[in-house]
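Ticket #629: bound-state structure for alpha-D-glucopyranose.
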Amino acid sequence: MIKRYSYSPFIDTGAVVTKVDITCGKPDFFSVSEDGVFSFVMDDKTRVYGLGEAVRGINKRGWIYESFCTDEPFHTEDKRSLYGAHNFIIIDGKERFGAFFDTPVRLTFDIGYTDSDIISIKPDKFCLDLYIITADTLKGIVGEFRAMIGRSYTPPLWAFGYGQSRWGYVNQDDIRAAANRYQEAGIPIDMIYLDIDYMEDFKDFTVSKERFPDLKGLSDEMGERGIRLIPIIDAAVKKQEGYSVYDEGHGKGYFCKDENGEDFVVGVWPGMSVLPDFFNDEVSRWFGMKYKALTDLGIQGFWNDMNEPALFYSEKELNNAFKEIKTYEGKTLGALTFFGAREVFTRLANSDKDYGSFYHNTPDGRFVHSDVHNMYGYMMTKSAHEALSELIPDNDFLLFSRASYIGAHRYGGIWTGDNHSWWAHILQSLQQMPALNMCGFMFVGSDIGGFNGSCTRDLLIRWLSFALFTPLMRNHSAVGTRSQEAYAFGDTEVFRHIIELRYRLLPYLYSSYIHAVDNNEMYFRPLAFDYEDDDVAAQVEDQLMVGDSLMIAPIYTQNADARHVYLPESMRQIRMSKGEISTEELNKGWHYVSVPLGDVVFFSKKPLPLAKPAMNTSELKLDDVEYVF
Ligand code: GLC
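RESOLUTION: The complex was predicted; output attached.
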């Protein structure tokens, strides 16, 4: 059952598609203060799930989180917010219910941080709709919530293939070289991503004539080899006269404005740039149709980036910073003055001051950005989705985004942003997956091997062994880091076997995904959701159920070649070793399972269909399977 309590929401976020009548009075379960702080007292056993893309464990109790889409390049456990704002939690204790706080303003979720027994949830402004969802089971709560927010995005089968990405493939020879190396090594691949390097001066919807002289030819050639090219699109548009996207948008007043009605100018990759006002339907359609420049070249997939929106600085605050730094000239810089001087520039990025000084024109009126901040990336994804649905027949396109708000799950997937080549980030990614599914985001994955920092052979092997179960399976890394393609470490056999296993598992993984989307279920679930009466299962933070009948328990620590695995019931252990599959019956309970580097071990409750190996999804035969058990 769902009850809705309305506290002067000022904009319809569009997150909820099945309307629920307003129930008046005090909400069930929470007490509410006059300034809009929602409180709940937890008993010792209470667990809290949800919040989508956030740091820390599956059980969110014990930390303070913020919903405020943030370009945060260090996903350490002291952080409060990442790129998504996913305001749905499930409280599971003496009382059990879900709560969705529908508002685009910043929300703080203090989940037993200030006071270990108290959940307190505070919006920056007391304007929101609160939905309280009750059901008999945890899965039931998610099911009702997901039915209310609408069907999750499903890309075509080819998007479930493996993809290689790297910021720093600077020309079409680099792309071709990556394709050659994969195919020569016999490693399956379906997609190669184009980062900002393909553009001319980082300008959206342009292609560098010098470095990518024939993108259409490249895309056709790759297409014949079973590989699709997936370019990036950034939110900000370079401010440059003579650049048609800027000229048109500026002429028509399509960019966000400052308090004087002038275009608000920010610095991002292209230098001084402006922000399309996606809240205005006309702008949304205009920007979306610009993707045609690339779909006309045969492109069928995009990743939308920098759409929190990320701001390195604003023109105005940058000018102020230059003035301020002058005041330090000639001074002896002691500890405080030195750090003060250093801060003058670092505090410019993504500042609240900037987010509070530009405006959107929405169908509900004019809003200062900070009041609708969490919807910006969502509106960009919606714009792209609506246009691509027209531009590409049969919805045969892939779309995912970095920033998101609940509702965006209907229009695209998300990736979890700029993680690091750290062991801890395998576990973090595992823990984010079910929380994202609760919030509707089903087509999800992390940058395999880690985006920042330098990857090692063993880290990549272990990361792939987990990520072969994630719907979005993409290896991506930052410019200047060590190469981490599946061929980058000399030997390729071990990588080939793991990626090949992904393809062999696609009959199960893809049909599980479709089943979960069609039935508002989660593709990834914590064990607690399937084994509600099992107190041990409830504690397990590093294993997941995948689809109906698989359980995964990846290795995520350096040099480990075994780990403890909890089986909530007896299951078959399935082991892939050097491309060979073997199985073994294991009883309910704890097991110490050996997983030498290169082996992939997981568990199944039912006979598992395995396809024949394939070099890409167009070669894959989903119905030609053998069953292993
Ligand atoms: C951002 C994205 C990253 C991309 C980079 C350059 O940091 O998160 O994936 O590679 O920008 O475009």
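RESOLUTION NOTES: The longest helix spans residues 493-518.
TICKET STATUS: resolved
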